[in-house]
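Revision sheet: structure tokens.
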Amino acid sequence: MVAPPRLERITVAEAADRYLASVAAQTLRGVLSPTTRRSYERDVAEFARLAGPTRVLDDVAGEDVDDVLLRYQTTPDGRYADASRKPGSSGRSAMTVNRFRQSVTRFFSHAAREGWVQADPMQWASPPARVRDGLRVARTALSAGSAASLLEVSAARAPGDPAAAARRDQDLQLRDRLVVALLLVLGPRVSELERANLDDFSREPDQTRWRIQGKGGHVRTVTLSPPLAAALEEYLERLRPALLARRPDDPDARRALLLSWRGRRIDAQAVRGLLRRCVARMPAQYRREATPHALRHTTATLLAAEGWDVKVVAELLGHASIATTGVYLDRIEGELAAAIRAHPLSAALEPAET
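Predicted:
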């Protein structure tokens, strides 16, 4: 049995430096992607600043973490030169705060293993909020009904909506429907979607495949269902040529699968924007927050509910470990009761016929 590490009372700044050195080493070994490394570096450095770099890490309690999280949430994002131009400029977005919290959680898990703290203070920190902007977020994944509703509204204009009628990109339904369908059916990361190029797709009469440039340089190939392949073809034939005509000499636009109204490669911000517009048109009973990451959760959860092997789901999502996929599988309402009813020994409890 391995003895627990002896407590080493080091400052927050020193602990952050040591932890980020281990993050850098994991990145060199290919365990973490450069993008993940940059997120951890930014978040842990910000945590050290807010918590007090000269403070002893072991003295940081759960209520101190809550204070740091609150101050982080209400501080404008320094990555934006003009915070007033950023949507929700009164503070940081829920997605950004959640990412920051996850980075801090990993930092303290590492600190506990190394013996820099006697106990992980994250276990006493307040749980994250479950409601954002009036939309339900108790479950990350959308229900099947909400997912179907999102697909339906993505392919239709908002009738009688003056704001929608005034938008210059009101004729982008073919693109928006394709984006929502790809996110819901195949569950790619939003970064994989914005990086997608035309030559990543192998389009044959009986099969269309997408070679996805994944996280950490890993590549996976997925097959599009016939309806999804048809949505792709319709976008490529009826809309993309008109979008490309706005920037015909842009080499990146010629390569890119998804283009904006101005003919540029679509970015993550545009994807989130089109999802917000779609959510606003959903019926009230189905309406809830729908981020690209939530749709990735939806893909995993709905496929698991249909009986897909978790290994197949992991391969579809591009996860190296099925343990990672497990995090994406939200509990489906009523599934526990259904599982108990279907238990293989339930029949043995039936009363014998007389």
